[in-house]
Structures are given as C-alpha cells and as structure tokens.
Design brief:
By secondary structure, the chain is mainly beta. It has helices spanning 247-265, 269-272, and strands at residues 2-7, 15-16, 23-24, 41-48, 53-55, 67-71, 76-80, 83-84, 91-95, 100-104, 113-119, 125-134, 137-139, 145-149, 154-161, 170-174, 177-178, 187-192, 195-200, 209-215, 221-228. Helix content is 8%, strand content 40%.
Amino acid sequence: MVSIFLSAGNQAERQRSSDTNNEVVSLKGSDDKGDDAIEGPVREVLAQSGSAATLPCKTEDPGAGTITWVKRPDRRLLTVGTRTYSNDKRLSVIYSSTDWALQIRAVTLQDAGIYECQITSHPVQRNFVHLKITEAYSIIPGAPDLHVKQGSSLRLECQLMAAAESPVYVFWYRQGRMINYDEEPGVKVELTKNGSILMVNKTKPSHGGNYTCEPSNAKPAYVVVHVIEEEEKPAAMHGGDRRNLSPAILASNFLVSLLATVSWRIPSFTSLYPT
C-alpha cells in the first residue's frame, strides 16, 4: 500500500515533506463551497483490487470525541466509533489510542473515492482520505508466440504490472494443467517479488504448447511455446565440412567423380566409325 499526503490551500505549490518524503499538492477546487469543501490534509491511499485497504484517521487526543467515517460526496454514514452502520460487511474499524482506521476488505473499483473521518471535538476535526484502486495484470515477455530450439533452455517470466503488493503465489499451466508441483526433471518454478520464473533446462517437443501464468492478485498472461525439432540427416548430406566424412565415403565420391570425367572425355563408338 502506498500513501501520499496532499494539502489543500490557496496555492497549488508542490513541496516535499521532510519527514515522510511524500508529495504535497493542492486538491481544493474553486467550486468548493461550505461544508462540501475539502479543507485540510488529504491522504492518498493506493490499494490493489481484491486486497484490503486501510484508511487512517490519526488523533492526538484519545478522548477528543466520537469518531465517525462517511463516504463522500453523498456523506453516507459508514461507522460511528467501532460500530458499523453500513450493510457492507467488508467494513470494520481498527482502533488504537491514536488511530481509528477504516478497513475495507476485498476492495473493488467502486470503492475508490473520498472518505471523511470526523472527530467530534471542539472545533470538529475533519480528516480526508482519497482511496485509489489499481487493477494489476501480468505479462510474459515474448508473447504471444515464442520459438525455441529443441535441446536449448527455455525461460518464461511472469511479470506483474500496476501491482501494489507482491503475489502470494503464481500458478503455471501448460495446456490447462498446473505444473508448479510436477517433479519433472529439468523444470523449475521460482516465485519472485514481482512475479514468477519458469525454467526448462533442455526443451523437448513435449514442452511445447500454451502456457498460462496466473498470479494470486493479478490478471493472468498467456504465451504459446513452439519447440523447433532439428531433423537428423546423414553426414554426407551436410554440405560444407568434408572432415566429418569417413575414408570409405571419400573414396567412393572420388571414384564416381573420376568415372564421370573419363566418360565425358572418351568419344562415343559411333563417332569413331561413322556409317
């Protein structure tokens, strides 16, 4: 999860916070009026679709008053204290002496927006959190088709894009069958921080087919692997290097060439004795 502090003010001046190294910008618009205006600090929280998002509500005085969470712009009441006033069972309040964080489990794109935390002190404190949702997806470099020679090594990498967290697992499928836990010689699957790597030491025709990588928190990716089989040919049919030819084959080739040359030079019988 990534947090960025945003500050509303009369100027749209960008600055860097010395203690958090987070960017500070202005979010207040000229059309904001009355209670609908977003005044004060606005924290931006980035969460990945399907994961849990935690929206902080810091307070310096634990006994300042009742803490409530509402969803803007319709000011829909979500929680009062630790009680939930929404039918959405994904919502809960994580309470500590200095924080009344709102947690939303299994977030979706519809959860994105501005959330307001109110502390009923005198005067009333209002904190704002801008929740952004990202949908992660995966790619396999070389897709959609990858060609590899038989006997060479194969390396497929599943890379997560637009992800806010590492995957718990990445499943690999060949022709629709999971191969992560197959004890196939020369085949290895390795989980990385941003995806997974599938390696095959010496490819065989059976290693060809449709591969799918399916991370726990991202859309899957696909690639079709084509294993190029090299045809076996007799040594005499491989042109260029004659050092690989046996002495018997060399002698035979020389005799054929000699007979062809002699027959070309000897005149025919009919040309010697015309009729």
